[in-house]
Amino acid sequence: MSQSVLKLPTNQLYKMQSYYKASLKGNPPPGAVFAAKVNGCSVTAYKSGKVLFQGPNHEQEASKWGTSNPSENKKKKTSKPSPTESTHAPPSSLYTSSHAGSDEAGTGDYFGPITVACAYVREDQIAKLKAAGVRDSKSLKDPQIEQIARKIVQMEVPYSLVTLHNEKYNQWQRKGWSQGKMKTMLHHHAYNKLLQKMNPTQPEGWVIDQFAERSIYEKHLRSEKATLQDNVYFLKKAESYSIAVAAASIIARTGFVRQMDKLSEQAGLTLPKGASQKVDQAAAKLIETKGSEALEQYAKVHFANTEKAYKWIK
């Protein structure tokens, strides 16, 4: 089974237990602080500080809490990088060159769309963007992200932003599209839009914050009769290395937050981010006030939160 393993301090384990409160299992295994099941991932935290993430979404869920330790991952029995990672990671010189980067937001949130941004950063802009606070959006709060996004725009950094609204997301999901395929096509479209905007300038390379192996990414493209562009590189935690990916992550998050604000206004109630019990309760209120069919417009309806929401309806 695909899995990720983290080693975390004890106080972090209890924060996690509180975060997964609505999804806790009744009988955790011996030696475990808690066990939970959420969005295609089983999470088990042990008293030793070891946290095991198993299932299709293990990497996505583990990334919320830290970086997986490859030596403890069953899929990686040695510290040597896999051929895909070593072959398709960008050369280190690219990070200090003019290049593009892309990242997404909203994939783990029940409410709201998926947004993907692609940004092009010139070599002479790198230091200025770092000074402006551009870094991984996961380490920033939403008000900070909004402020930094304005600075990125003021510096005239070329970017594209693609939004997959919930109605289309749900249609694709029912057609059998995985989130991986959706993200592939969104990143592909975002980069093409950026290239059109920049024409005739061409980036020295494009770094994708890796969510799938290159072979899987290309398979998704072929299924839609699309081909991978030139000089494309895949890297996990790319926002920690590439300022272009970091800028894209901030733009994507800003786009997601703004869409959430619009949806909350339309719904007549604040739609929480994430997939917690608060989200279940908000979904229940939405069903009660607008009917179950309204979820198509606001939510990723295949998430477990939909079923949980009905339990809150009296």
TrEMBL record:
Residues 57-101 are annotated as: Disordered. Keywords: Cytoplasm, Endonuclease, Hydrolase, Magnesium, Metal-binding, Nuclease. Its main location: cytoplasm. It is an enzyme of class 3 (hydrolase). The keyword Nuclease applies. Residues 89-100 have a biased composition (Polar residues). Its EC number is 3.1.26.4. InterPro entries: RNase_HII/HIII (IPR001352), RNase_HII/HIII_dom (IPR024567), RNase_HIII (IPR004641), RNase_HIII_N (IPR024568), RNaseH-like_sf (IPR012337), RNaseH_sf (IPR036397), TBP_dom_sf (IPR012295). Manganese or magnesium. Binds 1 divalent metal ion per monomer in the absence of substrate. May bind a second metal ion after substrate binding. A divalent metal cation binds at D103, E104, D209. It comes from the Bacteria. Signal peptide: none annotated. It catalyses: Endonucleolytic cleavage to 5'-phosphomonoester. It is found in: Cytoplasm. Residues 97-314 form the RNase H type-2 domain. Its cofactor is Mg(2+); Mn(2+). Pfam families: DUF3378, RNase_HII. PANTHER family: RIBONUCLEASE, RIBONUCLEASE H2 SUBUNIT A. Belongs to the RNase HII family. RnhC subfamily. HAMAP family: RNase_HIII. This is Ribonuclease HIII. It comes from Pontibacillus salipaludis. The gene is rnhC.
